Every structure is written in C-alpha cells, then in structure tokens.
Amino acid sequence: MSFIDYRETIKEGDTAIVFLGHESMFPVKVQHGGKTQTKYGVIRHSTDLIGKRYGSKVTCSKGGWVYILHPTPELWTLNLPHRTQILYSTDISLITMMLELKPGSVVCESGTGSGSLSHAIIRTIAPTGHLYTVEFHQQRAEKAIEEFEEHKVGHLVTVKNQDVCKNGFGITHLADAVFLDIPSPWEAIGHAKSALKREGGRICSFSPCIEQVQRTCLALEEHGFAECNTLEILLRVYNVRTISLPLPDLGKGTGGNARGESDQGSPSDQGASSAGLQQGNAQFKSGVPPREMVGHTGYLTFATKSLF
Amino acid sequence: MSFIDYRETIKEGDTAIVFLGHESMFPVKVQHGGKTQTKYGVIRHSTDLIGKRYGSKVTCSKGGWVYILHPTPELWTLNLPHRTQILYSTDISLITMMLELKPGSVVCESGTGSGSLSHAIIRTIAPTGHLYTVEFHQQRAEKAIEEFEEHKVGHLVTVKNQDVCKNGFGITHLADAVFLDIPSPWEAIGHAKSALKREGGRICSFSPCIEQVQRTCLALEEHGFAECNTLEILLRVYNVRTISLPLPDLGKGTGGNARGESDQGSPSDQGASSAGLQQGNAQFKSGVPPREMVGHTGYLTFATKSLF
Amino acid sequence: MEGSPEPASPGVIREGDFAVLKRDEVFKAVAVARRRKIVFEKQWFCLDNAIGHIYGTTFEVTSGGTLQPKNRVQEAATETKEAGADNRNIVDDGKSQKLTHDDIKALKDKGIKGQEIVQQLIENSTTFRDKTEFAQHKYIKKKKKKYEAVITIVKPSTRILSTMYYGREPGKINYLRYDTLAQMLTWGNVRAGNKMIVMETCAGLVLGAIMERMGGYGSIIQMYPGGGPVRAATSCFGFPGSFFQTLYDFPLSKVDSLLSGTFSLKKLPLESEENTAVAEESNGSVDDKPVSVQEADTECSAEIAAEDRQPEEQEIMDIPTEGDAFEDSKAKGTTHDKLKKQEERQKKLIEAADLLKEKNADGLIVASRFHPAPLLLSLLEFVAPSRPFVVYCQYKEPLVECYTKLREKGGVINLKLSETWLRNYQVLPDRSHPKLMMSGAGGYLLTGITVINESVKSGDCSEQTDEEPTSKKRKLQEQR
Amino acid sequence: MEGSPEPASPGVIREGDFAVLKRDEVFKAVAVARRRKIVFEKQWFCLDNAIGHIYGTTFEVTSGGTLQPKNRVQEAATETKEAGADNRNIVDDGKSQKLTHDDIKALKDKGIKGQEIVQQLIENSTTFRDKTEFAQHKYIKKKKKKYEAVITIVKPSTRILSTMYYGREPGKINYLRYDTLAQMLTWGNVRAGNKMIVMETCAGLVLGAIMERMGGYGSIIQMYPGGGPVRAATSCFGFPGSFFQTLYDFPLSKVDSLLSGTFSLKKLPLESEENTAVAEESNGSVDDKPVSVQEADTECSAEIAAEDRQPEEQEIMDIPTEGDAFEDSKAKGTTHDKLKKQEERQKKLIEAADLLKEKNADGLIVASRFHPAPLLLSLLEFVAPSRPFVVYCQYKEPLVECYTKLREKGGVINLKLSETWLRNYQVLPDRSHPKLMMSGAGGYLLTGITVINESVKSGDCSEQTDEEPTSKKRKLQEQR
User: Fold this and answer.
1) Can you name the CATH fold of B76-234+294-305?
2) What is d(CA B219, CA A154) in angstroms, rounded to the nearest whole number?
3) Which of B49, B151, C471, D185 could form a disulfide with B3, with the two C-beta atoms 3.0–4.6 Å apart?
4) Tens digit of pLDDT for each residue in B5-15?
5) Looking at the record, which segments are called Disordered (chains C, D) (predicted)?
6) What is the ipTM of this complex?
C-alpha cells in the first residue's frame, strides 16, 4: 500500500482502513502479530489481514464483520488524528482544481496542520511533483514527517518547521501553486509571490473569517496578483429513505356514496379525484436533506500571479 | 379593494393585478372608460373589469385571456414601480416574524424606498397599529404617500421626508419595532432606541454588505441592545418538470441471450438486473432547481432593546 | 382606532401568564405559577421571584432555586489582560487547570456565583495567559456557559415558540423551520379580518401563529384529524380569551360529506369519550414519535390543557394540566356544565359548517403529517377566488404531486414550489463568519392563488403560457 | 524523478497551441493560428501578435483587429476626484450624459482607445460628480466593460475549461458545474498511474479533466454510446500526443457481451461510415440541443478534430477542423493510411477489451445524459474491490434509484448522495458581500467504494448497521 499507488493485497506496515458501517471507520497500522479491538471483536493482523485482498470482508472474533479498505487521501481525511482543525474533501476538491494541480506540479503549503490537505496534494502531484509544506508548530511538523514516511510518500514532500510569515517557504521561483491556511495570510503573500515561478502561478488562501479575507484580498492586490476570486463551497448530503405518509380520512366511506351538487354550483368532482388515493399510506423514496449540516468551513480566496 | 381587506368584486379606483401567465403580470388602476393594452389585446375597464369578481378570467380583444387578481402586498412587491432596490417577500417574511409584528404594532421604518416592505408591514399591523416611515428622498416620499392613499391604507401610515440619521423617526418611546434599510444604519441606532417603547422592542437592520453589518452590530451593542443576531435567507424555487432520461444501449439484444460465466468467476447477474430496465426512456417528475437564483439580497441583523 | 386587544400593562410578568425561559439559544415554555419547581437546562428553580418584574428581565439562579434579577453592569468584569501571539508553545497535556473537580464543587457548594468561579478557573489555568486573545475569549465563553446559571424570561410569540419547537421538538411540528413558517404567514396574506382555513398537525403552532397575526379579528376554521385538534403549542402563546371566540374547528372526516351536501350533525362525534378512542389514529407520522393528543377543547375559551404524556415534552413545556388555565373556565365537572358545553360545541360546529359552506375563505394553510394532495384538493373548494394558499410538507415529492394534480384540475395559478435556506452569522470584531453548523432542512412549500375555474372537466383549463420554464426572468439585481 | 511530460517552455504562446481567451468572466477556447479572424465578445481580431508572448498576457484589441500587449501601469489612470455624500439630489431624467451615441461612435472611429472614451464619458456626465463614491465606481466599471476591448490569453486547464463550458454551454456538459467536477476528481481518487473507466457524454470535458489529473501515467478506458466518443472539449486541453497512447475507448453496446463472455471482434463497428449513421443516436438528451458528434479518433494521437455543426458552439470554440491539428497526423487520406488506421484501431480495441476483462480498474466515473442506473450496475463489474466510484446526474431521482439498486445488490459501501452549493463573493473595501446571483443547480453526485461481494444473490449482503440515519455523527466543529 501507498497513498499514491493501489495494491491488491494487505501487507505488513500498511495503513488500512477498517470500515464498520456507515461513516464508522478507523485506520489501523498492519503489523505481524498485531491485534485490533472493534465492537465486533478482535481482528488478528497476521491471520485476518496480511495477504488478504483490499475490499475483503473480515469476520471478527465475536462474529461480526468489517471491510478492510485501501487508504485514499479521502478516507485518510475522515480518519486521521486531529492535531488541528482540518480541511475536508469538499474544500480540498475545489482547492485542487482551482490551483490547477496535476502530476508534476510544485506546490507550497502552510500550515501542514494534521496533513489532511497535504495527502491530497501529494496524491495529485505524484509521481513527478513536489510539495513544500511549512508548519510552525514543531510537534506537528515532526508528526507529519513521520506520517508521510509511513504512507510512503516521503520522497514527494519536504516539511519545514518555521514561521511562514517570517521565513517563507524556503524556495524561490519554483512553485506552480501556493496554499495558505494560517491566521494571518496577508503577512505571507510576499513570500508566496517569491516562491511562485517567475512566469506565474496560482495561490489559494483559506480563512474562516471574512476579515481575514478582506485583508488577504488587499494584500494580494498590493502584490500584483490578478483574478482575485473569493468563494465558498458547502456539501449537502442527502439520506435516501423510504417515506410513508398517511392519507387523511376525509370521510369517503361515511357519506360520499350519494353525492349531490354542493351549494354554490361550483364543481365538486375534486372529491372524486382525491378518492383516487386509497385510504392508508402513500410511499415513496426520497433523498432527504439532513436536519443539520456543516454551514461554514472557510472562505477560499484564489488569485493568479500575473506577469507584470 | 384595499390592501388590508379583501373585496369580492372589482370597483372603480381599485388597483388590480392583471395576470398573464407564469410570473408575468402587472398592476392596473381601474377607471371607468379606462383601457389597458396586453399582448392578448385590450381590456376595457368598464365592461371587462368593473363589477366582475376578483379571480375572474377576462377575455381580451384578441381572444387571449388573463386573470384579474385582488392585490396583496406580495403581488404588489412583484409589480410595483421600482424607485429603489426593493425588499422581496422572502426577506419580508422573516423581518415580519422576527420583529414580532401583529395587529396593533407600532413600527418605524427607514427608508420607505419603493414601499415594498411598507405595504407588508401595514397589512400585518392593521387595523389598530401604525407605521411611521421615513424617506430622505423627497420625490420618493411623495410618491409613497400617494400610493398609500390609493391603496386605502393612508390612515395607517405616516410618511416623513427627512434624514433618519440626523432627525430620527419623529416619535419617542412609542414603537414596538424599528426597521432600517439605509446605507449607514449604525448612525440611526440611537434614534431607533429612543423611538422604541421604554419597556423594549425589536429592531432589524437590512444591509447588503458585511462591513455595514459589522458596524451596526457594534453600534447595537454600544446602545445596549441584546440578542444581536445576524442571518440571511435565500429562496430556492423548484421547477416541476417531467424528465425523460434515455436508457443506454448496453447491447442486450446482440449477444446477451446465450450468456456464460464471465472470466474471473465474479457474478455477472447484474447484467440481468439492469436488463429490467427496458430500452427506451425512463420518465419521472422532478422538482428541479433553477440554474440561476438570487444568491444574496442582504444580511438581516435583529436585536432586542433590553430593559437596562 | 379601536383599542388594542392586549391587556393594560403587557410588560409585567404576572401569575397565570404564559412565559418562555431563555438561556443562550435554548427556550422553554412555562406557565407562571407560585411555589412550583421548574427544571430547565439541568437547573431547578421557582418563578415566584420573577412575578412583578418586566418581561425581558435576566435572572441568576441562586442556590436554593430562587431567581435574582441580574444587573447588566456586573457583566464586563471578566476581562483578559494578557495574551500570547499565537499557540505555538502550547502543548496540551491535560494538566493546565490547577483547580480540581472537587475544588470547583466546593466553590459551588459555598454558594459562590458562577461568574466568580469562572474568574478562579482563569486564575488557576497555567496556559490561559499564553493563549491568543481569541482563544482566551473562547475559553471564557465556554466556562461561563458551564458555570453561570442565567435565564431570561420573555413573552411568548411566534418567533420565540417556533424557534423553540424547531430547536427542541421538531418532530412535533413536522420539522417546520421557523423561517418556513414565516414564509407561510406572509404568502398566505394572513392578517386581521381574514377568514382562514387551517389544517395543521404541528401541535397547534401554526394555528397559534395565525391567531397572533389575526389579533382576534376575523375568523379561523381549524380542520382536524381524529378526535379533536391538538393545541399544545397554541396554549403557549397565552392569547386572551377573546381570540378564541371566532376560532372554529371542523373534523376532516366530515369534509367529503360537507362537499357532497350530505353533511349532517347526527353523525358527528360529540362524546368526549371518542377522543381517547381515536388517539391511535394520530400516530401515523413516519420517523417521529407519536404526537401528543389532548382533549378537544370543549369550549372556545383558552381551556387548552396540554395533557402531555411524553416525558420529553414534559421537560420542555411546563404547561399546566387541567384546572390551571388562567381564563375564566374554572367551573367545570358538574353535569349541568357538561350538557351546556355540548350544546355550545354543537352550536359552534354548525357555525363552522356554515362558514365552510359559504366557500369564500380568504386563504388556506396546510401543514400536516398527512399527504397534502388529498387535503389540498378538497379544502381548496372552500376558498374564494383570488386568494392565496400555502401548503407545507417536510418532503418535496408530495408537493410535486400536488403541483401536478392542481395543474390538471385547474382553478389555481402562480404555483410555486420552494424551499428557503437560512444561515446564521457570528459577527464579532475580526471574527465574523457564518455559523459553523446550519439547518439543512426547513421543509418545502407550495404556494398559489385560486381563480374561478370556469372550465371544470374540460381540457382547456390549462394556462396559455407554459408555466414550466422559470427563473432567468427576474432581472439580475443591480449591485449596491 | 522522471522528467515532466510538459514541453520545455510551457509559458510561451506558440502557433498550434490550444489557448483560451478571457474577458472578465467570459472564456473562449481557440487554436492559435496565424491570419485567422476570431470573434469574441463582439470583437474581431487575429492572434498573430500574441504568438511569442507569455500565457497570462493581457492584450488590447486595437482598430484593425490586432492585439497589443497591455501594460498594467496604464490602468489606474481613471480616477475620481469628487464625490457626493448620498444620492438624494439625483433625479434620473435620462439627460445626464451630454455625449450622444453619434459622438461616441465618432470617437471609436477615430481609433480612440476604450479607456479614453470612458474618461470622456465621465467628463460629460452632469451627474457623475454628485454620485456617491460607490456609485461612481459602479459607473466606471460598467462603462469600462462596454468600451475597453481587453482580452487575456490563458493556458487551458480543467479550471478554465469547466468554468467556460458551465458558463456558456452547460447543455453540452449536462449542466455539470465545475465544483461538482472537482468533487468527482477528488472522490474518484483520480491520479497518475490509475486504470480508470470513464463513461461521459460531457463533450469530453470529464475525460480531459481525468487525463489532466493522470498526466499521461496509467490508463483510461472511455466507454461511449453510439458510433464513437465525443471529445470536442478534450481537444481544447491541448494535451501532448503521449497522453493519448494509453487512452482506450470501448463501445457501450458491447458491454453486455463482454460481461457475458460472448464478446467478439467481428460484431464491432469498424467502418468510419458508421459514425455518421449513428450520429442521431446521440441526440437523446432531454432539454438540450443535440450534442456535437465528431469522428471517433482513428489514431490515438491528438487528431481530435472537432467537427462542430452548431453555430452556437462555433462561436465559442474555434477549434480547427481537419488538417489543422498541431500533432504529427498531417498525412492522411491515402487508402494505405486508412487501412493502417483500421488495423491500429482494432488492435487498440482488443487491448481495451482485455483491460476491462481483468476487472481490476481503479475507479469508475460516470457523467452522462443517460439514466445512470444501468450504466453503474454493469460498469462496476470492471472495477477492483476497495476502489471509489462517482456517478454524476443532473437530477436527484435517478441517483436515489442507483442508491437503492446498489444497496440491494451489494458489493458497495459508503454510498453517499450529495450536492454542493457554491457561492462567489465580492470582496471590496466596505462593499463585501456574496455575489447577487448564484448558480442554483450544480448537479448531484453518488459516490461509494467497491468491496468484494461474497454473498451475491443471497439476502445477507446488507450491512450490519443501518446506513440510513446519517449526519449528527460529525461533531460540531470547534470555532476558530
């Protein structure tokens, strides 16, 4: 397994995803002799995992079963240990496309945070690109390096523990794209500009608050960035349900057999038309919106480094 | 006809709504001998309108027909002459409820603008409430007075032509609610406070820009307003359509009769299950979202005048 | 001008009032009574001390469960003096708070006020001073919420009650979000003087909202399924008795016979025993617990006792049960009274039937757990031409069906299927953004206007212009 | 590290390139050629002068249709000096502009630049000085847009082309909004080295986006209805020829026989004549004009001539017709070549069938005008276990059906039906707000993950936990 390459079977050292049921899963590091507790019982790595195909159903000791999934950046985002607020795949999707990332892209990122976006970037720019990611919190930077090695993408990423606002990204005129998720992005725009290639590139800043966006847009304009564009994306997930609505009792049986004209000469046949609905229930399938949903993650501001 | 009272039949002097078709309508002032051109031909007021019931189908001179509707504040909002940007019924609904308007409420409004909200307020506070509306543009104030008289609600409203930020609403400790739709609402918060009843009341400020909201919230806090709450409401209208999607030709007829097991021993019966769908089209009714919709009107900031 | 129907001094909390308790964004409707314990947000207290104060007053719950009016000025005390620049040096080891749970409990037991406890927590936090100013604010807010027991008593209103129900018991109101209710009232042109038909199974919330907007002027005919209308939420509004004089109700099960002209009083359920017998009928909602069923109100007064059988609702709505009502319906129980009530009820029922038979209602509002199509097709018969109607449904599909059937039948124009999308904002200096969670579902509405349907049964009742393509017609609004 | 597949100097506009013209938010894809007139936003011009400049350069269209690189510094000239406090004194009588249409035309004919014309309009407006500063800005912006003919030439990309198509020809891409496409690429885990199956009728836009993300590494099998795949949008990306070496296509009409094991080459349509014969088949989309059909690419090179028969598309996509392609496929027309091509095509078809038969694809992407259920149920057979799939549909109902059928059949987990909601903002000092118009419909997605389906035909393949109740599980995110 690797985060940039599918493998057929589970191997020692792999990070696999144990899928218990709808939106219930967790990652596991596969190790000879390792054991993992689930609510359905124990999974023994040597016998239950190693050598099995990804996508297999594994029966746990108590008889319940789980699926073992190949990791992807998207599954990782749902399962990674949170060291910070993280970016989710809905925002990540838009960031990746709007920064025009593709194999071979050189990208700068700050902060690394919990590595949610980093994994998605590395996936997209592999095998020939490179990610330079800067994290000012030392513990987090170290943990990120560790994870990238475990996930076999270490060769595609350079992690630096420094303050991007003071020290920048450590590269000059090399990057195709820069991503900022820091409290004061406006202080890093100059560094972002010098990290980007001479002929130009794209930048994205993610900020939860509109005041950060306002300052960042001003800084982008001052530094000569063009096509400044702020947007926001929200995911609305629908639950597929079978809905059954009772039909009201309007008294069809009781007195509707001998029907006369009603008082004011207006038509009364609609009683008959509604009679087309049987007493009982009306059933249908529906994709129903959730009662609660994520209403805001952050604003995404994109801009292009222009030539002049 | 009156904007606060339904009448059965159309009378001289009424403002009626001529409904041509989906979202196509216009208001008409009914006058003996009056004529109105429509794309379906002429409507002669004396013979086609006066004395007819509201809701009647009226055949125009070219043979096409229209419906004549009783005016409501909501129909007026869709048909009024625009002298300014106006508030639409989606925002108006929320404003009315969140300001807790009801019969008997005393309300202050600025600016009057094109009177879209004013009509809705008057409808809700009639017959015992009163609207004090302030408009700094003289022409608009005069036109509003005229319209209120025509719509027979003049006794429920006082229009003042002055600058609310300088001169306030002209009443003290009388209002249950204040509504502001002006460029600098924060400059009118003090006046709003003194217009509201001593024991308290509600305020709403409508602003298109977030910077206006920020200043207004600060001003509200400084003036001791509580429960400051900013929200936004958008309407998503669905078009009901019959959709027909073609079913793909996967080659059922050509070679599917003599089917063997497929290569890797994995099940191939799903071919059969999809065969349950007939060649041709799948039809269904759907409420489809519009390609374009109003994405922003303004932010609504509500607050309560508290006791201390 | 006529006098307002409100009592003389509406601002003062009085015994017998219906009031709403508020803590942050959480509400609870209560009847104001002396010497009665109330549980709200895990706090026990009595309302005795609140009586005589003005609505809108904020109280602190002291030890012993009494309420003390809180002075606004005390507030700003908890100030932060020092803040870190960022959080790079903060390592979360779970040991940053020196006060133990026992310490805190001891403070509470001593009767120390919540505000003081928060201050002590700050002083005993080893990391507080290193936190950024923003993180400090967040910390204080969180602790305040936990340790300060502060409630505000407000007057009930549609705004308050619809927010309360949507937040706490959405299943009881078919997940009708408050902004959707706001749309219904506006698009239904609900106002003083109207004759409205209402069919709702939203615990009486929609009825209450309509009554509030009509202010006692005009008339309302409430259609009800089963043994009687449910008005638990209606009672929370605390309307004056006069509001109920022109409120009628009519059983859904008699609609067809009324429309066909075979309606007769003899077949009507007048015995109150029937109410319990049909209670099961009301439990047809899909993914919801059974709704509460109460006695049909036997008098058109405010005797709207909410016999609530669910502990969940009990926790939130401390509505008095029988005998506690604040209006003049204390006398009851004698057979003479019972008989008199039945007579009155019968009289009112005839009046309701007569009102419907005139077929000149000024509007129809439907918001129920039933499939709306049969309701709409029948009840629209009672509405005058050129009047609005509004149908709410939690799901979109039934309203698509209503749309299709109404277009086939004719007699309505300007049909519009819609949904609103509501977003709340946090507006704070340098930290403004939409709230991180939002409601994903407020329900769907179908609105329209009745017209005279000249061409029933013939095919030419369709509109000349195709109604389907919408949008794009509204011009792009100018930017301000 | 391997070398990047991009050419050496990607920054320079060269003859034969595919480029995109941009004016404000409007795009147009063109092939860069000399001495060819292009119409864009009502302006005629040639691209000759752009060749040799760097992508991203902004040009002004001068009289005579030549392009002149625009110097950024000229910009800020149009400044406002005086502004009114509010608009109370402005009476709109339509007489505020002293320049007549004829005056303006005369200026243009004299070759006066747009910027100068705007300046003159301001000087001749009687009300400009009384307008508020904001209104002045609005005025200038409006006039600039009208009179300044400025275009930027940018390199094509998924971002640019998907925005362009959604803005101008959404019908051709089944109203797939660009952010929805972004979701598809991410949820499909599209990346270098994958073996992807694609079934799209989005003019080749989705295919192009996938090719861009795979960067020439791995393989793609495009399933197509009718006589051949449509790749008008794919050609606009200007991919190097190497990208097409591992792009395969396979006719949908042979999927069943491939699955049943009866697939044989003999029944395949190899004659290019068939392409036109089956063209009508492709025109089944609902509320859309017929999509363009082009020749199936007979060589796996970039010979993707867009034979576009619709004037509408012609206006926007100035793709070269046959013979103009920039790759080395100039030689054609001889019977020897034709034969050779047929052989190659046949070879590639066998390879495609073999790739599918391995049933180990790394993902499936569906975005078509067809009902997705039969496509999904069949094509998922070719996907390995533990791989993502993504299905796009313009409507929600067909995806609800897919969801239901897949749950019945088993072999997939983590099904999610979703829609994204995209909002653009205006961020300007003191005038920040969401854009006044937004897209109401970006389409719907169903995503999921394949697993080994052990229990086919038996009933116990359903998951242990009920998948239906969702939400609420994601914890409320902390506020920053």
Assistant:
1) Rossmann fold (3.40.50)
2) 53
3) B151
4) 999 999 999 99
5) 457-480
6) 0.86
